[in-house]
Amino acid sequence: MSLDRRTRIEQMRKADRARDRRNVVLAIGLSVAVVAGLVGFGTYMLLEKSEAAEKKETAAAQDAKAAAADKEKLAAEPIKGLKTWDAKKLTRNHVTTTVTYPMKPPVGGDHNPVWMNCDGEVYKKAIPDMSAVHSLEHGSVWVTYTDKASDADVAKLAERVGRTPYSLMSPYQDQTGTITLSAWGNQVTVDSADDRRVDQFFAKFVQGAQTPEPGASCTGGQGAQ
Fold it and tell me: Which residues, at least 6 apart from 8, have a Cβ–Cβ distance to it below 8 Å?
């Protein structure tokens, strides 16, 4: 083999090796670029999610603050037609003998040792007065209604009670008004679930200042029979 031929072959081999090295470098560079792109995209998505979560938390905090402000405003408003009883005259003994209350529904007085569950409980049937009074002692609002209440009003009140801890609802045919809201020592009668006094009453008396035993349990008592 001539010298020139060997030289050309060696040059071709060197060119092939150089081309292979370039391909390797290009492949590595492309891989690095892809990885960097993925990392960058992942970081962007994480930042987007973090920012969205932060906005959601901020919005929720603002909503909660606005709701608290609305509740405070409602609680401060006078409730037209509100009836009140002297708390000092509303005895709080636990008894098992029948108690005859001077008002219907009752707003206080001696009561059964076992309360009605009142963690947003909606009862379809009448419940015992004496156990309901015990729930009022724990700071609950008791919503009662007669058969004169419309299905729409009953449904709206049930939805309200169902999402409100320390409240309960039941039919009560012996009351004079269509819809009555009772708390310990306080009561108001309305004709519609849309009456503003419903919101006022809930804002003022759910675990309100009238509560003899604030924070006492509303579960673990008597349920629907």
Answer: none
